[in-house]
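ok here's Thiol:disulfide oxidoreductase, seq below lol
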Amino acid sequence: MIDLYTAATPNGHKASIALEELALPYELKVLDLSKGEQKTPEFLAINPNGRIPAIVDRAEGDFAVFESGAILIYLAEKTGKLLPTDVKGRSRVLQWLMFQMGGIGPMMGQANVFYRYFPEKIQPAIDRYQGESKRLFRVLDGHLKDNEFLASDYSIADIANFAWVRTHRWSGVEVDDLPHLQRWLDAIKERPAVQRGLHAPPSSLELRRDGSEEAKKFAEAARTMVEMGQSKTAGTP
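and the structure came out like this:
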């Protein structure tokens, strides 16, 4: 049994989708990020960085793994699925996994901060991160023009990128002009394991429509976390 410490975020859903795809039994432990439950001593003992997701593999002597990409690799290697064992095949998957971790995730995350959460609207920052997110989407679209999935067969690379790209509207970036990316998003979304993973915990993405009360509440909670982070960085209470 695996304990999954998570929340309804793209990184959190990367782990839950993988667990569902790999048919690994797990227990869901949802943390309330707005209340700082990811900063408790108990959780910091599992993930010193105080971020979700993290897992504890009870079958391996309560072995803890943090960082979403590391979790995906660990689970794939544990089961021998979603990650090829040959050198070139493995490298292709890891390249696209790192593409998400070093590009898609950080750029979309910053777009979210400045477009949705930051108390001031700093347009150059918004333009910068939305523009870079769209550029990365174009890279995916170009690759997917001639490939069904990112690295030959469906893999942890697809899971990682999908979990983020599917939230593109929340970042203020559209994909209407990227047909190959849309085709890929639709195909992965239809997978039963993906649908189950997006409900562990339930995704509020569909409720986050501009102007809706749900969107306002979610943005306010995220804004509070951003401001708390700024205060800690500045060394204030």
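fwiw Residues 87-117 form the longest helix (31 residues). kinda neat tbh
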